[in-house]
Amino acid sequence: MSFNYTIKTQKSVEQTVQDLTLSLSEIQFGVLGTLDFKNIFEKKGIEFENEYKLLEICNPIAAKHVLDSDLDLGLLLPCTIAVYRKNNETYISLAKPTALLSIISDTKLSELGREIETKLIGIIDKVK
């Protein structure tokens, strides 16, 4: 089982992040924050040639359900989508909720993970 779903896009990193942010709201997900690793590294004097933005995304209802079942599972939240440049191409990559939830044996949460993953892949494919 692959832990990620990754596709190429012809868009810039910035445009992809904007389009994802808008489209995620269609499935009641919001962007809690965006980590800009190139910028973070530059501020620390570390050279990093690729643009790399990590979107921390959340559906509050799903997150509450996960936390209600086990507070330790909050360590798996929020979901993350990376948008980055590699070899002069832009990629969108999702950390699959099913892969993250495969470490537990709760079938209800596994089903929730599959549902969320399907929706997120749908949005990524649409934005591509």
Oligomer: single chain
Counting DSSP E segments of at least 2 residues, the number of strands comes to 5
**Amino- and carboxy-terminal Cα gap:** 23 Å
Structural class: alpha+beta
Q: How do the helices and strands line up, and which of them pair or pack?
A:
Layout: E1 4-9, H1 13-24, E2 30-36, H2 37-43, E3 52-58, H3 60-69, E4 79-86, E5 89-95, H4 97-101, H5 107-127
Antiparallel strand pairs: 1-5, 2-3, 3-4, 4-5
Helix pairs in contact: 1-5
Brief sketch in words of this structure:
The chain has 128 residues and is α+β, with helices and mostly antiparallel strands. It has 5 helices and 5 strands. Helix 1 (13-24) packs across helix 5.
Keywords for this entry:
alpha+beta; single chain; 27% strand; 128 residues; TATA-Binding Protein; 5 helices; 43% helix
Characterize the structure shown:
- The chain has 128 residues and is α+β, with helices and mostly antiparallel strands.
- The chain has one domain (4-127): TT1751-like domain (TATA-Binding Protein).
- It contains five helices and five strands.
- It has helices at 13-24, 37-43, 60-69, 97-101, 107-127, and strands at residues 4-9, 30-36, 52-58, 79-86, 89-95.
- It has a five-stranded antiparallel beta sheet with strand order 1-5-4-3-2.
- A hairpin with a 2-residue loop joins strand 4 (79-86) and strand 5.
- Helix 1 (13-24) packs across helix 5 (107-127).
- The radius of gyration is 15 Å and the shape is globular.
- The protein starts with a strand and ends with a helix.
